[in-house]
Write a structure and sequence with these properties.
Elements lengths: L1 H18 L5 H8 L13 H4 L51 H18 L3 H28 L10 H14 L5 H19 L14 H4 L2 H19 L3 H6 L1 H17 L11 H23 L2 H21 L3
Helix pairs in contact: 4-5, 4-7, 5-6, 5-7, 5-9, 6-7, 9-11, 11-12, 12-13
Length: 323
């Protein structure tokens, strides 16, 4: 303990010896051209010198650190403030340019309500509601896949990879209406209710990056595109009054169309390697992106033009590629 105290006292003395130099001495000396006066180094007695090693490097162990190889300091990632989100990893695709976090969350909540309405009894489910559920679950799997890979803060991102996989399976299974698929639909209905209420459904751990060929197939997504275009956007872009009344909904549907248009052109989907089909998907994606931008600018004519381009892309695609 005494030795440690002597070390601290010595260090303090060294610091003080360098600190107490009259301010301005160097500046005045420089003006006169004289050599600056500096404090004389202290002279230490033998009992003080004996405390230190003659060459401390001789006592070091291990290899010398290679500081040149560590010149770049890694950035510290702060936790996301969004509920259920996780620290972001570098993303290879900027989903945020097509669809924002609010649209993702809102669509998931709306689909939770739609599933609750369609999963009420085995009779109704087998009578046709299973077809709606196939679309609901497939779109949900797509949205969770996007949320898992999202390049920003988005709600439920921590649970999204596992939810993507369970809803993908439910979407594929709902090609038929049976007691088994109804029971699975009930489970997914409860998962959504838990998620929206703030709980976390049980789902196996999964990779954030999606194998898009396993998320969903094309028909359910095309059905959702048709709903957006035929049942909603066409009416809301009919005139400036309707556009003004439904501008927030136009933006929501446009972003959703842009995201789905990107997904259906990815590897694993039907015709993904057909250049003509890929061109239609790109045209739809661009038109939807332009429509969302027109809403931000409150420009009806620009929105109307973008809507017309969407209609043309859809019509051209349907002429050559019908389900």
């Amino acid at each position: 303990m005494n030795r440690r105290r002597r070390n601290y006292s010595l260090l303090a003395a060294l610091a003080l010896a360098g600190m107490f130099v009259p301010q301005g001495t160097g500046a005045f000396a420089a003006e006169r051209g004289d050599k600056p006066k500096r404090a004389r180094p202290p002279k230490w007695s033998a009992d003080v010198l004996d405390v230190f090693f003659e060459d401390a490097r001789e006592k070091l162990e291990g290899e010398r650190p290679d500081y040149a190889a560590k010149s770049a300091t890694p950035a510290i990632q702060s936790p996301s403030s969004a509920p259920g989100s996780v620290a972001q990893e570098p993303s290879s695709f900027a989903w945020s340019k097509l669809i924002d976090a609010e649209t993702l969350e809102t669509e998931i909540k709306r689909l939770a309500q739609a599933v609750a309405q369609d999963v009420t009894s085995p009779t109704e489910f087998k009578g046709g509601a299973y077809q709606n559920c196939r679309r609901h679950f497939s779109v949900l799997a797509t949205l969770f896949a996007i949320a898992a890979e999202y390049d920003g803060d988005v709600r439920w991102q921590d649970a999204a990879p596992g939810l993507r996989d369970v809803f993908a399976r439910a979407g594929y299974n709902c090609k038929v209406g049976t007691d088994q698929t109804y029971q699975e639909a009930q489970q997914r209905k409860q998962d959504l209710a838990d998620l929206v209420s703030g709980s976390r459904p049980r789902a196996a751990e999964a990779e954030r990056a999606a194998d898009w060929s396993q998320v969903t197939d094309r028909p359910p997504l095309m059905q959702r595109l048709n709903i957006a275009h035929e049942e909603r956007l066409t009416k809301w872009l009919a005139n400036e009054r309707e556009f003004g009344r439904h501008s927030a909904e136009v933006r929501h549907e446009a972003q959703l169309v842009a995201a789905i248009a990107d997904v259906i052109g990815r590897e694993g989907f039907d015709y993904w390697d057909d250049e003509q089909y890929a061109g239609y998907a790109r045209s739809l994606n661009q038109a939807a992106t332009d429509l969302a931008a027109a809403v931000e600018l409150e420009n009806f004519q620009q929105a109307r033009d973008a809507g017309n381009h969407m209609t043309k892309a859809c019509a051209d695609c349907h002429d050559g590629y019908r389900e």
